[in-house]
Amino acid sequence: AYPGRAIASLIMAVVCTLLVLVLPAVTKTLVDEVIGNRREDLLLSTGLLGIGAIFLRQLLFTLRTYGTNAWQQQLTHDLRTALYNKLQRLPIKWFDTHSSGEIMSRVASDVPTTDRVIVETIDQAIPAVLQFAIIAGWMAYQSWELMLVTLAPLPIIGVITTLYTRRAEPRWRESSEATADLNALLHDNLAGIRQIKAYTVEPEALDRFGEASRRAGEKHMRVMKGQALVWPGVSLLAESGIILMLGCGAWWTLQGRMEAGTPVAFLVAWGFLFDPISRINHLTQVFLGGKVAAKRVFDILDLPDESNITEGERPAEFRGRVEFEHANFSYDPDTPAVQDISLVAEPGMTVALVGPTGAGKSTILNL
Hints:
mainly alpha, ABC transporter transmembrane region fold, 2 domains, 11 helices, 76% helix, elongated
């Protein structure tokens, strides 16, 4: 179902992009023919053509938006279900080294972020590149000289964007990881709120949460600082191209090298030309965040399943005596999970293991 929906969305995006050409063409006709040559007979038909193109474009945009969201939700559902199924097939020891909050963050937050990258590549990135190429081609057909003037700031914008992307990627990764750590800590604290209150460690829990929240905020502000410096500069360069284009167009019109409608039409087309650049700049942020999220998701999906997961029989009855005598265990040689544990559980006894998150309760049960 995904390829069909993606192709349908792409086709509507192509048609919407082609309809973009109507508005600058209508503008040129109105200036050169209706006003310049006093062709009043073209006024109504040209105006209706422009309105019809705008209406059709918005209609297709509405259908495309609804369809894209529908298959994005289906994709999110399928990937989230696959991830949950994978979690059920992992060995118990994997869960001993990953908190419930961390796992929740991957399932609830990282999956939609990953899907957003896939969907917006089809729904936004490809149409943006196509729209830029079509508008640039139309400009070249009208006046290749004025087209080159209009695109003069583009190489500088490309260099700035490339350099920023390289520097921003590690910052996005740190921000995403800090946010995931905050969500994981919040989940674990709420799940263990009874233990926190029982041991009256609310101040310590608040300090840990405050530190995690502060760290997430600092990492996010590092990302925002880069955006605040780069994107206004990109907009400044792009909008400076308008003045340069209008100045050259006016001069060449006065010299008789082009009709007055050409620079006016270029002014209308400029918005459609640099709109894809703005979208791609936005998508850069989406892709950087999605790259981190996708790694966290597929790190789990790529793990091997627990061996012999479907084998074995459930005994009809359990009997036995469990005893630990000065037991020690660690997942990491430098970090003990439990130390000097001694307990006895006789057959039929009910034993409660109580302690804060990370105290080793699950480890003892697994042993």
